[in-house]
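sorry for the late reply, my laptop died twice this morning and i had to redo everyting from scratch. anyway the thing you sent over, i finally got around to it. pasting the sequence first so we're on the same page, its 449 residues, then the predicted structure underneath. double check i copied it right bc i was rushing
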Amino acid sequence: MHSDRVPTSPLPPVFDDHRELAHLPRETEPWRVSAPHSGAGTDRALGDVITSLKAASAHGHWQWPETPVVFVSDTHADHDGFLRSLAAAGALRRTGGGPRDFTLTAFGETCQIVIGGDCLDKGPSNLDMLDALGALLEARPDTRLLAGNHDLRLRLAITGLTGPRSPLTDYLFLRMGRKLLPLLREVWDRFLRHGQGLIGVPDEDTCRQMLVPADDWFELFPREAARYLSGHAIAREVRRLRDKRRAFDTDLARAGLTTRQVVAAGLHCRKLFLEPAGPYGWFYARMDAACRIGSLLFVHAGIDDEICNLVSRNGTAAVNARYRRELNDHPLAFYFGSVANLARTKYRPSDHPLSQAGVAALHRAGIKMVVHGHVNNHAGQRLLAHGGLLHLEGDVTLDSASRRREGLPGLGAGATLVFPSGDVVGLSADYPRAKLFNPSGILWKHGTS
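ok and here's the structure:
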């Protein structure tokens, strides 16, 4: 489709041998922040973005990456959407339909790739998605992988099933595992069905006790959790677990699994994902909570004051060290703490707060924009300000399951590209033109150099 060269323009060469990207935009337009498809949809929202840019500019110039950055997020168990998006960004050329059927382009060999989390859940295949990601990491070992809330669900569900038992962990599988049942079905079918997958697995009643907390849990959990959660959060957890317990048998039937098969697959997940020699042992070992490149902070969902201050004082290395320490220390405290908030927040009142003081700390540290996924959009990426901090929402609904459920036509593809020139490009098959943002251009237009 184009010559194989490293691009200097905002839109890299695309190699579309299988003609999957005919609907991909090849022209750019200025990023229309005041429009709902590209921002928060009001003139006031545009004013908030301008205010954020002006506040950030008071702490020095933007620092741009030395080589282009490609950000892809929320692939949700769809290896086709994942690889199609990297092809749309010009980073690879697909050579077939399998998860490992691709080669890197010249641009793909030189750019920086950041995977923004939520690789798991929804479908069509978690294991194919992991195989594609593993192949990319083999080809580009410096690719950065961030933790998404759906990825953390599997980690915590495995911990709840296979770790020490207590009221604070007994419920984790049922709390986290409902959306993971399709993955467990894949694990059963690929690794256990044709062997001796049920050897050593307890009977159905015992397995059910391993998966579903007994009635006394509803009395024990609130007392044990009081040191970690507020009363409101505890009540919400209890309410959620009652709902999940009522739906458990229906969910199992929908997945086509027995309780013994679920336990067998869950136990096998520990070997697959948490043992270093496991086929997917690299997945959590390679995962970070945050990644900084120049003036940009990449996370899955967002940030709060506590992490703003930690980044400002000690950098993202301290955030990632804390992520690993807390994840392996106490799962409940981790999941409701500030580090997991990076993968979970939507800036709701119940989420950890982001205030002007936290934003000012990030600005002083030279971070001017957060790039994240988590909030899926139907017309490409959006730019908006939270708490005075500029955010780029990069989840453009790539996976086929979400697209079908949400009524989106065609194949999902999209990526956010950041160039050394200061050009930020939002590319999506669901919007007719690539969105082009350059903060210097916006500030000049609005009278601030």
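Residues 1-8 have pLDDT under 50 and may be disordered.
thats about all i looked at so far, will dig more tmrw
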